[in-house]
Amino acid sequence: MKYLQEYRDPVLARRLLAELRATATTPWTIMEVCGGQTHTIVRQGIDELLLAGIRMIHGPGCPVCVTPLETIDKALAIAARPDVIFTSYGDMLRVPGTSGDLLSLKARGADVRVVYTPLDAVRIAQENPGREVVFLAVGFETTAPANAMTVLHAASTGVTNFSVLVSHVLVPPAITALMDEPDTQVQAFLAAGHVCAVMGWTEYEPIAEKYGVPVVVTGFEPLDLLEGILMAVRQLEQGRAEVENQYARAVRRSGNTAARDAMRRVFQVTDRTWRGIGPIKASGLALSPEFARYDAETRFAVGDLVTRESPDCIAGDILRGTRVPTDCAAYGRTCTPRTPLGAPMVSSEGTCAAFFNAGRTLEHR
Amino acid sequence: MTLSCPVPRVETERVLLGHGSGGQLMAELLTEVITPELGLTGPLEDAALIGLDQVFSTDSYVVTPRFFPGGDIGSLAVHGTVNDLAMRGARPIALSLAYIIEEGLPISELREITHSAAAAARAVGVPIVTGDTKVVGRGAADGLYITTTGVGVRLRDAWPSAVSAMRGDLVLVSGPIGQHGISILSAREGLGFEAEVFSDSRPLHELVAAMIAAGGADVHALRDPTRGGLAGSLNEIAAASEVCVEIVEADVPVPAPVAAACDLLGLDPLHVANEGCLVAFVAPASVDAVVAAMRALPEGAGTTIIGEVTHGVPGRVLAHTLVGSSRVVDVLVGEQLPRIC
Questions:
Q1: Which of A54, A202, A249, A268 is most buried, taking the most CB atoms under 10 A from its CB?
Q2: What is the pLDDT of residues A253-277, one digit of tens each?
Q3: Which residues of B fall within a CB distance of 8 Å from A320?
Q4: Domain range holding B117?
Q5: Per the CB < 8 Å rule, is B4 touching A100?
Q6: To 10 degrees, what angle do helices B107-124 and B73-86 make?
Q7: Thinking of the domain A1-295+306-315, which architecture would CATH place it in?
Q8: B220/B308 same-domain check
Q9: Per-residue confidence at A168, pLDDT binned at 50, 70, 90?
Q10: Environment class of residue B13 by beta-carbon count within 10 Å: exposed (0-12), middle (13-18) or buried (19+)?
Q11: Number of neighbouring beta carbons within 10 Å of residue A363
């Protein structure tokens, strides 16, 4: 695989940091939207090197974190059925629902399996014609095309014992909701490179214009992030608010048309509740009527399951970027990756887990 | 806008798969359930020293698939126990081999695995002197489980222990990390990476003997970073020795195919299992001699200094990152779960 060492060069990193310090004349607050970017920033300690008053806010872009409790509870209800093989990406298995998580359910006898691609779930369905195979389809515009292709694949191969529990979310409505918050502190966004590889960046142009915020489509390697931050700071310093593309090796303005077509065919836009943030209009994807027969919610009649979340952690503030994990009294004490109180402590992409795994303690406050 | 998160119920009643992964969950199981019943105190080592010179170790092997690029469960069962003995500075003198076989296992496969274990033991020069064979009903085991137990004799001047790392020690690894774990994952899940990754499964007793010959008692601590990976071993030694370990991330040898696979799956190579390399804490006075002795052997040809023991917070492992910052290297809770995207 190419493009690993090239984007992790310590000499170039230092050069970019020096340039950044020379460019920034006043403090700026920038949000990286994507959890993968948070992971790199915290793992590499990039935010601690920025100085010059540049503050990174870690945004709501961790699919594990924002998947609503209700979806987890529906997943637990479906996975507990003896006729079901429940499949999921690995890091959803430890997300706490009301009564436990999928890993505990597995230890109690449920057939829960980690897959690396949703196509594996269809293959498992073909190998187990007597059982129902369900895939937990969560994530942003990055995972949605593969899940759409999987539903199309199941349809074209006539696999009927396969269904998906869908809880996809979309980035632009979330950014808009954040900017509409009266207390928002975000002055620029690093847009998620992989989301834009699928969607392109035309959706971000009206946002940059309306709110006067620079948006830089940014990759995930250390040098990508440093360059993305530098491009955002240059715009802020020059008073510009445009969409720029740092991640040119992967992203075109129009995105990936084939992927978007598959998404458009299989899914339709719907209102979605974000865990810790609340409902955001037109911010998610659900199966379109043509493919409703693959909807696990209706197949297993869990559509009516409603879960109320109890107000016990500051995940919402963290996902909105108004507070950081070390502001939370529970962080590192009652809330750890072993005993997560909230989803951001579960996935290594989650802000709290990223902080915890990097050994950030309350002394960082 | 409501801000909320649920309080999860922590699983305390049942064993999870993650309890076997060499992370925090496993440490809890050992310290809260197992060692108190046994009356064991003190640090957990790869092998126990009995009296002054006898070293004793046991390990079970449940790997799936049983055959993987670079090895199989038979040779692995020999190498693993030989290496656990070697990490206490011992030369292996005898092994036992016990099978738990699931009904239905092809005899040809059992023969092939036994042949492989025997060949591995011959290559090490240690006899398999006793054993056991049990068969359980279909579904009661997954094909074949192997337990090997080993007895060794401590080499002269060899006192490596997890409690003995000292301030100023340099931290060495004997070769590239992450190969075994990625090879197993790739074979098990049929991931089909561009470049095939081979397990590094191999015996390390001769490497340790050469290190002890060169450095003697200056070889303070040895560990083969199996489950839990390099991060797990470094944390165990940092905790047991009550020292701070600082490593330079860029100096940790991660082969390109392992780095690529980890990147694709969202895994951290520091947490991926190894079966053919070791991490050593060596006093500065002997480092040059020990490194030269290691590099003279094929299994130590890739020996690299990755860090040192410092005055920092005892029990903590720090990594200096590529961009010049630093972070804490922690142990995993349970299994390392691939990230979504």
A1: A54
A2: 999 999 999 999 999 999 998 887 7
A3: 1
A4: 46-154
A5: no
A6: 30
A7: 3-Layer(aba) Sandwich (3.40)
A8: yes
A9: very high
A10: exposed
A11: 6
